[in-house]
Amino acid sequence: MSERGPSSELLFCIVKDHHQVEEILTGFLELGIRGATVIDGRGMGQILSMDVPIFAGFKNLFPGGSSGTYVILSAVASDLIGRAVELANEVCGSLSKAGAGVLFTVPVSRAVGLAEEIR
User: Fold this and answer.
1) Is the residue at 91 inside a domain?
2) For residue 92, is it within any domain?
3) CATH of the domain at 45
4) Do the Cβ atoms of 112 and 22 come closer than 8 Å?
5) CA atoms of 78 and 7, how far apart (whole Å)
6) Do the beta carbons of residue 61 and residue 54 sit within 8 Å?
């Protein structure tokens, strides 16, 4: 079993456009980030506006519209996080704009089965 200290982080990047996912993943490779998982999902606004009739009239209040949502997960060395955030901002416009996407990281205290360069 291999353990890692706070020198790596789990990056969550949530975007609406599959083209952005492709650009982010390609950019990750260029940065030396070699592994990521993409999960297809739906956001709260998407579920409420589509599945709960009482909220259907409020669908314009939820940023991002009714398209799909993609969650990119990647264990990233802490020294690459800043560059990964810059990349996501370049691809998505600015994540500070409502509906553009969300990115956050959490420290990884233990990881088993990751590539040696991440450990």
Assistant:
1) yes
2) yes
3) 3.30.70.120
4) no
5) 5
6) no
